[in-house]
Amino acid sequence: MESVERRAHALEALAAEGVFDNDDHPLIGVLDRQAVRDRVRELEDAFDGPGRRLHTVAAKAATLVPVLGWFAEAGMGCEVASPGELAMALEAGFDPSRIVFDSPAKTRTELRRALELGADLNIDNVQELQRIDRLRQDVDHDPARPAPGIGFRINPQTGAGSIEAMSTASHTSKFGVGLADPGTRRMLFEAYAARPWLNQLHVHSGSQGMELKQIAAGIAAVYELAEEINARLGHRRIDRLDIGGGLPVNFASDETTPTFREYRAAIEQMVPGLFDGRYSLTTEFGRSLLAKAGTIVARVEYVKHIGGRQVVITHAGAQVATRTAFAPESWPLRVSLHTPDGKLKAAGSAQEGDGSEGAGLRSDVAGPCCFSGDLLTEDVELPAAEPGDLVAVHDTGAYYFSTPFAYNALPRPGVRGYGVDPADGGVRWEGIRRAQSVEEILAESGGGRAASLD
Ligand SMILES: Cc1ncc(COP(=O)(O)O)c(C=O)c1O
């Protein structure tokens, strides 16, 4: 059964269960577990070949312990960038040796913890290296455990993609050390020459909006740097390359493109030596592993016609689709309209006499937040909608569940995983996150403290 068919079964099952009849939470996020499994397998197959691979999931794409647990169970590792993400990764069951710690602002406490755990560590800058030098003097490394991968994050300065905010290889990006900046190559050579425990280089040129050629150019620059440092040191000190994540996702249709195979082919064309087994390779994909597996489903509360537009007011807006609401040109989303029982509404299902039979209506799909930019999509053709219909927001499995916006004190929605029995179409649910309650919102907003203010 294809993922589109599984999604249709899941929507109908949610509707049949009466999920959207609940006025407290008329929306939910769902994740297709089989689709995630399939993506993990595609990644592993695409990177098949000699040498060690450590495929990690970027926790920031899904800060949900059970979802991270799916990746741990599949044998992957986890890339984390904060103490919270690290705690989630450990709870999800990742062995510390399969955890990679990034972040441009690691505190001494965080660095000490990473060293004690034996996690891989991508050093952002020279000041951080000096902290690590000092911390290493009193953190014992258990010789029974494999030596962690530790090395610099390199900004190859090979250029930005179409979304500036997602580009980490621009000339002035805040991440890592700028490879083209004066003195960087010398600094790196001296750092590696003086520290036998530096054995890795890291590059992540950016996320959505990057072209494969640009990602490959960043990896090529770092591969050449590793070869150069090794040649100058006279031995293969750097034997690990962490090539980051960043494979873009197609948000325009159900097609998964580009694929992990295309990603590998683009890199291999530019850096044929990368896959010959001399380097252990780490990857840190997020969006490409999860986006297409996720759907947000919300009830339509009202439908209005304003200025020639059908305006569909739903319960999913900027609180779950923050980037889309604030930067819609960079983060467009696809929505589909469904009847209250979850079935796809065809264009011809308009009300007789409303002038829209057989055709779509120019529509905006809006959320519940109090600002007019709170839109999931603008000026798209949709069938005539009615209160009680459902709107499905597609490809929202990465970042949308982990990047909530607390404006208007709207609750974080619940999230469930699902699987579908191919024999009978029966949907099996797995609870991932409970919807936030008003009591929880009050508690995190200083509730109960009003009296202590005087
Ligand atoms: C260091 C690092 N690795 C991996 C990722 C994941 O990127 P993506 O979700 O585009 O694969 C990010 C995203 O910001 C990142 O900063």
TrEMBL record:
<dbReference type="InterPro" id="IPR022657">
    <property type="entry name" value="De-COase2_CS"/>
</dbReference>
<feature type="domain" description="Orn/DAP/Arg decarboxylase 2 N-terminal">
    <location>
        <begin position="35"/>
        <end position="290"/>
    </location>
</feature>
<feature type="modified residue" description="N6-(pyridoxal phosphate)lysine">
    <location>
        <position position="60"/>
    </location>
</feature>
<dbReference type="GO" id="GO:0008836">
    <property type="term" value="F:diaminopimelate decarboxylase activity"/>
</dbReference>
<feature type="region of interest" description="Disordered">
    <location>
        <begin position="342"/>
        <end position="361"/>
    </location>
</feature>
<dbReference type="InterPro" id="IPR009006">
    <property type="entry name" value="Ala_racemase/Decarboxylase_C"/>
</dbReference>
<feature type="active site" description="Proton donor">
    <location>
        <position position="370"/>
    </location>
</feature>
<protein>
    <submittedName>
        <fullName>Diaminopimelate decarboxylase</fullName>
    </submittedName>
</protein>
<dbReference type="InterPro" id="IPR029066">
    <property type="entry name" value="PLP-binding_barrel"/>
</dbReference>
<dbReference type="Pfam" id="PF02784">
    <property type="entry name" value="Orn_Arg_deC_N"/>
</dbReference>
<dbReference type="GO" id="GO:0009089">
    <property type="term" value="P:lysine biosynthetic process via diaminopimelate"/>
</dbReference>
<keyword id="KW-0663">Pyridoxal phosphate</keyword>
<dbReference type="InterPro" id="IPR022644">
    <property type="entry name" value="De-COase2_N"/>
</dbReference>
<dbReference type="InterPro" id="IPR000183">
    <property type="entry name" value="Orn/DAP/Arg_de-COase"/>
</dbReference>
